[in-house]
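Example S7 (structure tokens).
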């Protein structure tokens, strides 16, 4: 696990969580909740997606390049946004 990729996934997950919360205001969490859920989802889900898709294998050998930054940003953002959407949906279903 590369720490730079993890940090990029955490930040992009937080951005993805806030974008998902802005997209779906009815079931979204608070801005702080979207940020936390997105960051956690981006870090954990990004690592899982990277392992499943086989991304970043050459990045560990050659250092941090543009391809590894883009893949870390994409996997972290997507998984962070999905995590915030799912948690917001579950929160709204439990509250009713």
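Recovered sequence:
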């Amino acid at each position: 696990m590369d720490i730079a990729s993890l940090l990029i996934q955490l930040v992009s997950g937080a951005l993805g969580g806030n974008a998902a919360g802005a997209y779906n205001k009815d079931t979204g969490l608070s801005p702080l909740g979207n940020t936390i859920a997105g960051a956690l989802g981006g870090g954990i889900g990004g690592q899982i997606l990277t392992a499943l898709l086989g991304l970043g294998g050459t990045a560990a050998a050659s250092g941090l390049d543009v391809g590894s930054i883009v893949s870390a940003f994409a996997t972290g953002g997507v998984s962070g946004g999905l995590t915030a959407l799912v948690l917001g949906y579950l929160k709204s279903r439990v509250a009713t």
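Notes on this example. The chain is about 85% helix and 0% strand.
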